[in-house]
Amino acid sequence: MKPVHPSNFENPLGVEMCKNRGVRGIVACDPRGVIGLEGKLPWHYPEDLQFFSETIQKFPIVMGRKTWETLPRKYFVDRAVVVFSHEKRQGVHGEIWVTSLEEFLLLDLSSPTFLIGGGELYSLFLENQIVRDFFISHIKKEYAGDTFFPLSLLETWTKTVLRDTQEITTCYYENHHSQNTKNISL
């Protein structure tokens, strides 16, 4: 099945999120929500890496510091890169460092902007209902892990299966309760 690109999905809410017109999430996780082990993916599925690359294309990406430190630099070329950290830093490779959700929401990023990890940032954005939709590759095999995606926070979202293979089911989730136009207090 051909990968689904985010441009094929209209904004289901028809609203803007402050200056950011929409945050979309993308992740691969096992049935328990495992997304990482010791700073790395605990699996290697080339078809999922291809789906990830093709879906985020050249769109802006948002991630936590740990994800930024481990992600191959090829993902940072020709796009805006926003990195969350507890400490304010100066970008060395053109990335923008932020220390809060409020600071992030003030950025003027093109749409869509993709949230790509890690576990703490997924939880922050989901708990504050900032993400409007998610592409999730559900890895069918269980893996050992120390970093998790909060699957329970998507229980009320609308789910559509995009493709189903022997090893992975890729789904699209829509959040009908997104706070895209509201100010967020942490």
UniProtKB/TrEMBL annotation:
InterPro entries: DHFR (IPR012259), DHFR-like_dom_sf (IPR024072), DHFR_CS (IPR017925), DHFR_dom (IPR001796)
UniProt entry keywords in alphabetical sequence: NADP, One-carbon metabolism, Oxidoreductase
SUPFAM superfamilies per the UniProt record, alphabetical: Dihydrofolate reductase-like
Superkingdom of this protein's organism: Bacteria
Pathway(s) of this molecule: Cofactor biosynthesis; tetrahydrofolate biosynthesis; 5,6,7,8-tetrahydrofolate from 7,8-dihydrofolate: step 1/1
EC number(s) on file: 1.5.1.3
Pfam families xrefs: DHFR_1 (PF00186)
GO MF annotation list: dihydrofolate reductase activity; NADP binding
Catalytic function, reaction form: (6S)-5,6,7,8-tetrahydrofolate + NADP(+) = 7,8-dihydrofolate + NADPH + H(+)
GO BP terms in the entry: dihydrofolate metabolic process; folic acid metabolic process; one-carbon metabolic process; tetrahydrofolate biosynthetic process
DHFR domain location: 22-186
GO cellular component, one term: cytosol
Family of the protein in this entry: Belongs to the dihydrofolate reductase family.
Biological role stated in the UniProt entry: Key enzyme in folate metabolism. Catalyzes an essential reaction for de novo glycine and purine synthesis, and for DNA precursor synthesis.
The name this protein goes by in its record: Dihydrofolate reductase
Gene that specifies this protein: folA2
